[in-house]
Amino acid sequence: MMDINKHNTHILHRFEYHAPVTVTEAVKLLKELGSEATILAGGTDLIVKMKDGSERPRHIVNIKQIPGLRGVNETPEGLWIGALTKISELENSRVIKEKLPVLYEAVRVIGSVQVRNLASVGGNICNASPAADSAIAFLALDAVAHITGPDGDRKVPFGEFFTGPGRTVIKEGELLTGISVPRDVYGWKGYWVRVARASMDIATISLAATAKMDGGVVKEIRLAWGTVAPTPMRTDNVEDYLRGKKLEQNIIEKAASLAASSIKPRDSGRSTGPYKRKVAKGFIHEALTRFAEA
Amino acid sequence: MKITINVNGKQQRFDVEPNTLLLNLIRDEMSLTGTKYGCGIGECGACTVLLDGDAVLACMMLAVDADGHRVDTVEGLSDGNKLHPIQQAYLDEGAVQCGFCTPGFIMSTKALLDKNPNPNEAEIREYLNGNICRCTGYVNIVKAVQCAAVKMKE
Ligand SMILES: Cc1cc2nc3c(=O)[nH]c(=O)nc-3n(C[C@H](O)[C@H](O)[C@H](O)COP(=O)(O)OP(=O)(O)OC[C@H]3O[C@@H](n4cnc5c(N)ncnc54)[C@H](O)[C@@H]3O)c2cc1C
Ligand code: FES
Ligand code: FES
Q1: Contact, A226 vs A138, CB < 8 A?
Q2: How far is CA A254 from CA A153, A222, A288, in A?
Q3: Which of A156, A193, A149, A187 lies closest to A171 in space, CA to CA?
Q4: What confidence tens digit (pLDDT) does each residue in B56-90 have?
Q5: Edge to edge, what strands does the sheet with A203-214 contain?
């Protein structure tokens, strides 16, 4: 939380302003300006950082005028979500609510109504906070990030997208154009939970869990965590352990313990490792108990 | 930069710097001081205005991003001296004390009731989650929203 008394939050520093209207134009600008340029989408992360002085870009490249980067569309492969799509549009999408419950649950609690009306999904991801709520859900859903840059387009699975707190694989000159979610994960059960000190505060620890069940047996499962490591992370070993198993009490207990020892929290001012491990155990317990029902 | 914004139903032209925040344009250039500057970092909702009907935070937006759009502020609600039913309900229910948060609450309430004319208490509280009041304790604010919902249907 910034110390607002030390800063003037009423004004922004002067910057050179650019508003490209095509992806090609944006890429060209970003490449030319290099490290002096910062992309502006909804601004709910960037403007706060500019106000508290932690970011002071010389050039702002506002990408909101670029058409075609906004919307939730079904494709033969699954769902395509443009990077500029507002969080509120994800919340109101019928297909997300019906087919991807874990994503729906994650986005509907981001910030407030006003924040969700401004914030873009691309910004939530590219800001690369280990707590970013939509990012945790996308990681669980085997989503893929679509990036365009001077060398053309590339696709990066979410598991490889984050490289550290505030850092992603996106290089100078590149931008995120969208996110795709494979059809394979449609209709899986979803469970999403986070603990924060207060509502609207960033998560202290969160879990996005989604599973394909057959009776009480786990066919497939994905477990993605927020704020238990420098980046959003999956616990593959717990997923492997659970695959093919019937969710009986002893299996659930074992999976919960395994998860608690697999996450990688660090002691920080916000909360402590041992606390997070205990909470993680509880989260897995709750998620699997729900998946076992009906 | 030259921009055009429909402010409370009237097209208006402005010449702004790229670093001008929408909130400063509204308060300083338009002289519409109903919209308040609270925290300045997105957390209190005092600066809530409607952008094409959606509640947003004017302290977090560049003025240039409102170019070509419609912005509604609390000043646009009343019909001359006749208060809008939402404004009247906030007064009637004692949902205003110091009043600093009130314009933001009223604009969020407008957005809510335009989308959902019959919200229950849980829906009201969830929708107004981004507006903070240090004085009233929210009970009367919820009542005011319920009362406004009834009046607006009449
Ligand atoms: C009061 C408040 C509450 C909040 N609560 C939550 C919460 O509960 N959960 C949560 O996860 N977040 C929360 N946030 C953080 C923020 O709202 C989200 O992360 C939001 O989705 C960011 O999107 P944006 O479009 O506003 O990003 P911006 O601020 O515009 O950009 C964020 C970063 O991403 C980069 N960027 C943006 N788009 C692209 C792109 N297409 N390609 C490459 N880089 C890009 C920008 O350069 C910048 O570094 C909150 C913020 C506020 C102010
Ligand atoms: S002043 Fe904008 S949210 Fe507080
Ligand atoms: S009436 Fe004073 S802050 Fe709400």
Answers
A1: no
A2: 42, 16, 11
A3: A149
A4: 999 999 999 999 999 999 999 999 999 999 999 99
A5: A189-196, A203-214, A217-226, A233-234
Q: Which residue on chain A is closest to B67 by alpha carbon?
A: A65
> How far apart (Å, rounded) are the C-alpha atoms in residues A46 and A54?
9
Distance CA B104, CA B60 (A): 14
Residues of A in contact with B18 (CB under 8 A): 15-17, 60
| Domains with residue ranges and CATH for chain A | 14-62 (3.30.43.10), 72-184 (3.30.465.10), 189-293 (3.30.390.50)
What does pTM read for this prediction?
0.96
Q: Give per-residue pLDDT as tens, A22-52.
A: 999 999 999 999 999 999 999 999 999 999 9
* Sign of the C-alpha dihedral computed for residues A186, A168, A208 and A198 taken in this order: negative
- Is the reported ipTM for this assembly greater than 0.85? yes
B66 DSSP 8-state letter: G
Instruction: Tell me, using a 6 A CB cutoff, whether residue A170 lines ligand 1.
Output: yes
What is the CB < 6 Å shell around ligand 3?
B 96-101, 133-136
